[in-house]
Amino acid sequence: MARQNYLFTSESVSEGHPDKVCDRISDAVVDAYLREMPEARVACETLATTNRIVIAGETRGPATITNEYIAHLARLAVRDIGYEQDGFHWENCDVAVHLHAQSAHIAQGVDAGGNKDEGAGDQGIMFGYACRETEELMPAPILYSHRILHLLAEARKSGKEPVLGPDAKSQVTVRYEDGKPVGATSIVLSTQHLDPALSSQDIQSIVEPYIRTALPDGWISAETVWHVNPTGAFVIGGPDGDAGLTGRKIIVDTYGGAAPHGGGAFSGKDPTKVDRSAAYAARYLAKNVVAADLADRCTIQLSYAIGVSDPLSVYVDLHGTGRCDEARLETALRDVMGLSPRGIREHLKLNKPIYERTAAYGHFGREPDAEGGFSWEKTDLVDQLRPLAG
């Protein structure tokens, strides 16, 4: 039987964290290609360090997407994040673009042809998860860690808190009683600030109201332990303080460690890559299972082989909270949604420039938007799944 009383911690990082800067740039490249050619192929990696950005990888798309244009997109992303410091400035940093054509050997496995449907872009396993801890059907620790940083970023960009810098990390430890989240035992926040004279106490006085807004009423008590800028000054931030790479924040991007992860990153990959699209599909299915009241918790695993269309396996774990047979549900999920790479893309309408907005504050637990972003957060399968109860 699962433990009912325990502490669990998840962290988030802001859009100005070095790794997230790289995720943002890589996804800006993906969007640029998909905007021009919905069937484009992109596998883009970014490295950022002191006043230098290096973009590398492979693509297949229109010649109108030039290296100069990609460098311009990188600068726009950095400017929007807010970096105008001596060691990392959107206008002055050196941007090197080293993208080459997609491997023909990969393309022959992925592309459809003759009687062969489009295959998966790689082998691998992908997980999706949903639970009843929050209205968004997300684990509470990661959801509120994201929310803290998102509120601070909005305050910084609006000019309300101009002393805050783009780089930040949050961490929330949640107390569970009878299996339900009830409060925060500790809160950790490190945020870059532009005034070196500010102390940790000064920063806490700025950020504490936003943290209290982010967390549910009553979650912060006199016993909650605070660690705000615990090392003291945090003025040098972003890629000037620590090099960044695409794809290093995969737990931040998903469920904060509350669910398994297959190991593949999302950012910089077009939706033929099942690392991304199948993880979105698994979250979509898990969320619909919970929303249909078939379980209070649901983990779904999908597995693929490169060049093979259909998933090798579909696994469902309802963690002892299910109101339907798991094996029957595994079969039903294949019926309500095509789980080939093409089936996923068409069902969720993933061949759109919707990925740059996913690069910070989590890929899951977000609101679907009018342009098609976060389509995997919809619960439009509920009516089809609900009859499986019993």
Question: What's the short story on this structure?
Answer:
This protein has 390 residues and is an alpha+beta fold. It is built from ten helices and 13 strands.
Q: Please, could you describe this protein's structure?
A:
- By secondary structure, this protein is α+β, with helices and mostly antiparallel strands.
- The protein has 10 helices and 13 strands.
- The model has no long low-confidence stretch (mean pLDDT about 95).
Any descriptors?
four-stranded mixed β-sheet; alpha+beta; 390 residues; 13 strands
Oligomeric assembly:
single chain
Structural class, please?
alpha+beta
Helical run tally: 10
Main β-sheet, spatial strand arrangement: 1-8-9-10
Write the element-wise H/E pattern from the N-terminal end onward: EHEEHEEEHEHEEHEEHHEEHHH
- Determine the N-to-C terminus distance: 22 Å
Q: Give the tally of β-strands.
A: 13
The share of residues in helices is 25-40%
Largest sheet: 4 strands, mixed
Radius of gyration: 21 Å
Kindly estimate the percentage of residues that lie in beta strands according to DSSP: 15-25%
List the helices and strands and how they pair.
Layout lengths: L5 E8 L4 H19 L4 E9 L2 E9 L6 H15 L2 E2 L2 E2 L4 E8 L2 H7 L13 E8 L8 H19 L5 E14 L2 E14 L6 H15 L10 E4 L15 E2 L4 H4 L20 H18 L5 E8 L8 E5 L8 H11 L4 H8 L33 H4 L5
Parallel strand pairs: 3-6, 9-10
Antiparallel strand pairs: 1-8, 2-3, 2-11, 4-5, 7-12, 8-9, 12-13
Helix pairs in contact: 1-2, 4-5, 7-9
